[in-house]
Design brief:
Elements (H helix, E strand, L loop, with lengths): L5 E2 L2 E2 L4 H37 L4 H28 L1
Antiparallel strand pairs: 1-2
């Protein structure tokens, strides 16, 4: 990462940009794993609702939330990368 990366408050202090990108990378990975786990859990809820004969309204809401969360994560990652580069 270049030292001349501009942020909303100005230029990065020396050595801070690499720390910010490391922290942003960790946050992105944790959020991506959380979205993946949400997909698996919503799939399990949908399967349970199907085999038990209950309505799948809750499972569809969980699946929609996982999809929306994934879209927000990818949009935020793209926005953050464009601001830091």
């Amino acid at each position: 990462m270049k030292a001349s990366v501009l942020l909303a408050i100005g230029v990065c202090p020396p050595g801070a940009c690499s720390k910010m990108t490391t922290i942003a990378g960790w946050i992105t990975w944790v959020a991506a794993w959380a979205a993946g786990i949400a997909f698996v859990i919503s799939g399990a809820i949908l399967c349970w609702a199907y085999f038990s004969g209950h309505g799948s309204n809750r499972a569809m809401k969980a699946l929609g939330g996982a999809c929306a969360g994934s879209i927000i994560i990818s949009a935020a990652t793209t926005l953050a990368n464009s601001l830091l580069v």
